[in-house]
Amino acid sequence: MFAIDLADDAQLFPLEIWHAEEFLAHIDRGREFIGQYVGFPDRATDLESARRLLGANAESAAADGRRLYGIRVDGTLVGGVLFPSFDAASGNCEVGCWMEPAGAGRGLVTKACRVLIDWAVRERGMHRVEWHVATGNKKSIAVAERLGMTREGVMRQNHLHRGVRQDTEVWSLLAHEWTATPAV
């Protein structure tokens, strides 16, 4: 298995179906915190549903679609980043994240997203990278800002999460904006 160092004690790695027990334990530790804005805790409630979630993402990755990556600190899964959508033919993708409290506040999500964006733009030729975030998720909005993304607007009440309609901010960057900066 490959991993990319994000810090002396933190690595980014592909999150696959055989990580289901580790993934479920992570979700259980951060279920309420993560679930404020992310749907994984509602979809991975036991080992079988965690396997299904990771398996569906593995199938999508095999078809050159969405992908999941975990972030470990001192060998423990504490969060991750993902491509919720990845369309090589159109040159458009979306990057996202989730984190349990134990991994928050260290800049690991920003570093991991830089790795994903750099790969998407420089290796895969993506033209546009989006970041969709609930308007109340200030930490995630701060990541988009640190990544140099531009806020394009708000989709009002477009996302139903736990019975509440949320507004979603759309942030993006274009390939020429990314490649104007040094490689990660």
Automatic annotation (TrEMBL):
InterPro entries referenced in this protein's UniProt entry, alphabetically:
Acyl_CoA_acyltransferase, GNAT_dom, Ribosomal_N-acetyltransferase
Keyword annotations for this protein, in alphabetical order, are:
Acyltransferase, Transferase
Q: Which domain of life is it from?
A: Bacteria
Main EC class the enzyme belongs to: transferase
A molecular function (GO) held by this record is: protein-N-terminal-alanine acetyltransferase activity
GO CC terms: cytoplasm
**What Enzyme Commission number(s) apply to this enzyme?**
2.3.1.-
Fetch the Pfam families from UniProt: Acetyltransf_3
UniProt-listed Gene3D superfamilies: 3.40.630.30
PANTHER family linked: ACETYLTRANSFERASE, RIBOSOMAL-PROTEIN-SERINE ACETYLTRANSFERASE
What is the name of the protein in this document? Ribosomal N-acetyltransferase YdaF
Please give the organism.
Streptomyces lavendulae subsp. lavendulae
Name the gene that codes for it.
Answer: ydaF2
